Amino acid sequence: MKIDDAVIAGRYAKALFEVTASLHEEDRVGHDLILASSLVKKLEARLHSPAFSIQQKKALLEEALKGKVLDATLRFFQLLIEKRRFYLWPLMQARFEKIYHEKKNKATAHVFVWRSLDAAARKNLEAQLAQFTGKQVELKIKEDSSLIGGIKVRLGDWVMDSSLQGRLERMKESFNHGH
Q1: How far is CA 20 from CA 54, 68, 169, in A?
Q2: Could you give the C-alpha distances from 159 to 81, 109, 143, 156, 163, in angstroms and in order?
Q3: Which of 5, 29, 76, 172 could be 20's S-S partner, Cβ–Cβ 3.0 to 4.6 Å?
Q4: Does pLDDT of 1 surpass 70?
Q5: Sheet containing 136-143, strands listed edge to edge, beginning at the edge strand earlier in sequence
Q6: Alpha helices of 23-137 — where are they, by DSSP H?
Q7: Element (H, E) at 113
Q8: Bridge partners, residue 111, by sequence
Q9: Domains of the chain by range and CATH?
Q10: Measured in Å, how far apart are the chain's first and last C-alpha atoms?
Q11: Which stretch, 54-58, 104-108, 112-116, 173-177, has highest mean pLDDT?
């Protein structure tokens, strides 16, 4: 990936967000992009293959997505095929999500736990992170038995690691550096 690719992906994502926001469809398109991600992944080899024409690729997309996503979302994918920018699709999706969250004052926290959180703990964590960020926080929780205990939270560039594994690693590092 070249640095220009990130800039181009950002421009496409911004344009998609602005167009869909003007139609009040940005929420639906955000969901469409997530849904389309799994559907398009199955077609990726064919969509990147020079053996298929642009028309064939657009037809593949239409067959996979028609009726499952908004027409605007389908047209966006077809535009990427036409402009030979489909390879940037994952970057565009990530950038669209970032723009969406900024405009909606939302944040996504990636939470790693050694065992599942009950509803009360989840709600408490959500409230604490919302207070910390000043945004509505969506939790994406993943169980990770290697943490041994505790929790690890990644929110944008900020990371809080109170897992037993993290504490042990910090202790080891401290001993290795003579502190």
Answers
A1: 25, 17, 46
A2: 37, 10, 17, 8, 12
A3: 29
A4: no
A5: 136-143, 106-113, 151-155, 158-161
A6: 26-41, 44-48, 54-65, 71-82, 89-103, 119-133
A7: strand 106-113
A8: 141, 153
A9: 3-102 (1.10.520.20), 107-176 (no CATH)
A10: 41
A11: 54-58
- When the pLDDT of each residue in the chain is averaged and rounded to a whole number, the result is 87
Token digits of residue 150: 């505790």
Q: Name residues whose C-beta falls within 8 Å of residue 101's C-beta, 6 or more positions apart in sequence.
A: 107, 108, 135
| CA gap 174, 77 in Å, rounded | 50
Residue with tokens 């167009």: 19
pTM of the full predicted structure?
Answer: 0.67
Q: How confident is the model at residue 179 (pLDDT cuts 50, 70, 90)?
A: low
CA 53 to each of CA 32, 92, 127, 150: distance values in angstroms, whole numbers, following the listed order: 25, 23, 50, 52
Structure-token pair, residue 62: 């239409």
* Residue 119: both structure tokens together: 């509803």
- The continuous run of DSSP H or E covering 161 comes out as strand 158-161
Tell me the residue type at 177: H
Task: Provide φ and ψ at 27, rounded to 5°.
Answer: -65, -50
